[in-house]
Amino acid sequence: MINRNNPSPPKPYRMALPDFKLNVEPSQLAPLAAILRRHDYTESGVRGLLQNFDNGEMIGDRLPYYKWQCDQNPSPLATLTKFFLLGEGATREELLELLGMDLCVALQDCDALIGYDGVFTSKVVLYPCQGYYLFTDYWYVIGHQTKGKIYEIGTDSYVLARTTPRVGVKNALDLCTGSGIHAIMSAAAAPSKAVDINPRALEYTKANAALNSVEVETFLGDLFTALESEETFDLITMNPPFVPSPDPDVVLIHRSPGETGEEVSHRVVSSLNDRLDENGLFSMILEYPVMEGELYVDRLEKWLGGDGTGWGIAVLWYVHRELSEYVVSHIGPVESYLETFNNYLDSYKKHGITAIRFASVFIKKLPPGHPNWKVMERVAPWPREDVKDDIHVWLDCLTRYNDPTWRPAPDWKPKLSRYYKSAWRDWDDERGVMEATDDNWLPTTRVDAHATDLLMRLKKGEKTVAELQADWLEDGMDEASLLQAFRTLGALRGLE
Question: Which one of 46, 209, 300, 396 has the fewest beta carbons within 10 angstroms of its own beta carbon?
Answer without folding.
Answer: 396
